[in-house]
Design a protein that fits this description.
The protein has about 55 residues and is mainly alpha-helical. The protein has one domain. It contains three helices and no strands.
Amino acid sequence: MDSGGRAKVPFTTGILIGIGETRQERVDSLIDIKKSHENMVIFKKLLFRILNLR
């Protein structure tokens, strides 16, 4: 995710639930997404504004 963000490649992310992962694995995945997201907050706000105009 970080490499894609630095390269300004648009993408979405998420996690699958119910495929045998542990609770801790889910928490770790969400924390990793949050850390990457903190560097891309401005882009996210811009994307939401664009989508709301449609």
